[in-house]
């Protein structure tokens, strides 16, 4: 399997969309596990229903769990919005990113340097889980996060996302035919997952943004095991690279989705699960482009404006504000990267040995990754993205 070649990382926004499979993981079952793994192998991306549909029913005694709801997620979006829009430059500087934690300003991060000469047009805040023993945050926090209600909400969100990630990891193990459904769980239990709050601001009329040279988030694959992505209604922009080398839009919600206030959670496979499964599961390349805000009255699967000249807002502003939350689920640093004990995975070992894992700086072959720990891999990717001073 050759390295990923992507000549169109700066290609215009896609004019077609992709219909991802949608799953309700409130109950575990072997059939669900198999379907989920099939989707992860085909697309590398899928949707998870975060709230129950009105038609959802269960037999008496069945355990039904939805970890999140619209108000919980919207509250975290509100906390992030207050920080990005209200924090002073001094407050943001005090939390400047170091060792993958803290604030990232516009154009600092360049996820696709092969296609873009300067960094992405976005702001981020990477928030690691609190220390499990002391409950202390592992990094400086801005005042907008330190208020008692905000602090409690961010801790609660971390815990809810960890529960969802654990359920997904169990289902993936079951779907791969691993005898122990908890095979992935122990090495993730004590690793601090990262909640990344993202803000893609509307650009002023005098912006130096060049549609042919710049992007909101460049083409890349994710570094860890899985990513949970939360989006807002009417705020499109995510695209994935299909097998034919063409980009496809990921709608905010599938047509007729039951909860317009809480779009389904996007789940994608990261580089380490691709490696762990000898390429059976796909770590798909994706990006975020500048497109017009979706019409709330239109179908979420309908066409959105992809011409930046027609994506202007009031007074000639370019685009609209877009917020998202990415939760990166990563194994503990000391985790040794070895293929999972699955017959389907073992059958792919010889053909996968020379494969290149992921896209972006710091990517490695499967043979090289087999001699590394999860922490070594993550540090290499972060240093390629930010440099030694920031990544540690």
Average predicted confidence as pLDDT: 87
The poorly predicted ranges are 1-6, 295-310
Question: Please, how many domains?
Answer: 1
- CATH homologous superfamily, by name? B-lactam Antibiotic, Isopenicillin N Synthase, Chain
Helix content: 25-40%
Number of helices: 12
Reading side by side through the largest sheet, how are the strands ordered?
A: 1-2-10-7-12-5-4-3
Major sheet description: 8 strands, mixed
Strand content: 15-25%
Find the structural class using helix and strand composition. Answer: alpha+beta
Overall, the morphology is globular
What is the gyration radius calculated from CA atoms? Answer: 20 Å
Please identify the top-level CATH class: Mainly Beta
| Number of extended strands | 14
């Amino acid at each position: 399997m050759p390295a990923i070649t992507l000549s169109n990382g700066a290609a215009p926004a896609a004019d077609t969309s992709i219909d991802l499979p949608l799953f309700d993981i409130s109950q575990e079952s072997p059939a669900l596990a198999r379907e989920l793994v099939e989707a992860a192998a085909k697309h590398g991306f899928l949707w998870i229903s975060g709230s129950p549909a009105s038609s959802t029913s269960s037999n008496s005694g069945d355990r039904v769990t939805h970890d999140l709801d619209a108000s919980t997620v919207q509250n975290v979006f509100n906390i992030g919005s207050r920080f990005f829009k209200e924090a002073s430059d001094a407050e943001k500087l005090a939390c400047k990113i170091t060792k993958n934690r803290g604030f990232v300003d516009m154009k600092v991060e360049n996820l696709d340097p092969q296609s873009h000469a300067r960094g992405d047009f976005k702001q981020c805040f990477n928030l690691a889980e609190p220390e499990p023993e002391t409950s202390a945050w592992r990094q400086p926090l801005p005042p907008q996060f330190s208020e008692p209600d905000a602090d409690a909400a961010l801790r609660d969100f971390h815990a809810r996302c960890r529960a969802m990630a654990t359920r997904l990891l169990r289902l993936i193990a079951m779907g791969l035919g691993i005898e122990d459904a908890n095979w992935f769980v122990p090495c993730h239990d004590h690793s601090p997952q990262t909640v990344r709050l993202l803000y893609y601001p509307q650009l002023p009329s005098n912006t130096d943004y060049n549609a042919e040279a710049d992007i909101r988030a460049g083409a890349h694959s994710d570094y860890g095991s899985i990513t949970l992505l939360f989006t807002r209604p009417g705020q499109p922009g995510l695209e994935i690279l299909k097998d034919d080398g063409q980009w496809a839009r990921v709608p905010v919600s599938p047509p007729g989705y039951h909860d317009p206030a809480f779009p389904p959670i996007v789940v994608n496979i990261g580089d380490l699960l691709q490696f762990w499964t000898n390429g059976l599961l796909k770590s798909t390349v994706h990006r975020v482009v500048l497109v017009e805000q979706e019409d709330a009255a239109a179908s979420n699967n309908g066409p959105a404006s992809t011409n930046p000249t027609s994506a202007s807002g009031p007074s000639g502003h370019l685009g609209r504000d877009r917020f998202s939350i990415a939760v990166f689920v990563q194994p503990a640093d000391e985790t040794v990267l070895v293929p999972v004990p699955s017959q389907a995975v073992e059958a792919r070992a010889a053909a996968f040995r020379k494969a290149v894992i992921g896209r972006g700086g710091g990517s490695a072959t499967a043979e090289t990754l087999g001699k590394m720990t999860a922490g070594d891999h993550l540090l290499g990717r972060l240093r390629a993205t930010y440099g030694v001073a920031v990544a540690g």
